[in-house]
Amino acid sequence: MDEKLSKYLTPLQVCALSFCCCVGWGSFIMPGTTFLPFAGPLGSLIAMTLGAAAMIIIAANYHLLINRHPDSGGVFTYTKKILGYDHALLCAWALWLTYISILWANATAFVLVGRNFFGDVLQFGFHYVLFGYDVYFGEAALTLFVLFLFGALDIRRKIFAIRLNTALTVFFWTSGIIFALGALSADFPQNFNPQFSPKYSTSLGIFSIVALAPWAFVGFEVVSHFAAELNFSPKKSFALMAWGIIAAALFYIAMIILAASATSLNFSNWYSYTQHLDVMAGFHAVPAFQAVSEIFGETGLMVMGATVMAAIATSLLGLYNATSRLIYATAQDNILPAWFGKLNAQKVPANVILFMMIISVSVPF
Question: Global pTM?
Fold first, then answer.
């Protein structure tokens, strides 16, 4: 099915794809707004470790199927071979909705980064309120630019795009870990008390976060959609997915440590702080950002902004690619029109990415 797709991906590039598709805007926000309030610092660390272990078991199953059916369909192909086309179409549709919704969420997150770090600089042009959310022309235009920029890169500059994705992934993972190590070395040991949430029982808090593991780690399996483009043996797929999951877990843990380290603004500990997030604005409303501001100052905060944008960019690059391969595979099986199954000179399903860009136009508005 995938004879025309070129083999160009290296192990490092695949590992980067597996990791970066797990991590986006939510990985910076959720540790402070959800993980800590439910489970506390120690409970969240335990929960993310258990969640990562569960995902690695799933990765082992993906590994077996990738080696048995090495094409771009991923779960669509596996389900088709075992349960037939009806089940396969449902799986493909559900996964496409998952990927496209995460892509849209990360694209619009560029606006949230701007609001948190630069205030109202992009709030110009027409303005209206939709479901309680302010929409400005300037912010919508930025989102459209981001969606079209990364889509165009994946269409026209495949090799450059994957190299850029890998470089940005290494940068933002390293940056996040360094920030967390800085928080641990700072004189803030009292910030990690209480170790568990006073609001919920320890077991309930931990397993509430474990239940979010499929959300937190969704994306590691994009390796399955690049099986026909691996420039090495698919036997390495399990190790690459496992390393991607471990890297994502370490990044989430780093953000948990940062979020628990934010104690200024006259709050005695992380629990008092997180209980008042709804009355805060800007980066003060994001504990991880607040901690970086306290510990590393304005320079650190700017680096944190670059880290967030790098994470969002890699998520967009990876999800455009993975989703295009999934839809390409269904078109190759004549489930979708042949137009979706065409490759351009770069050996990329360009029509699929173009289609995704077109249907994304309304999202920023």
Answer: 0.91
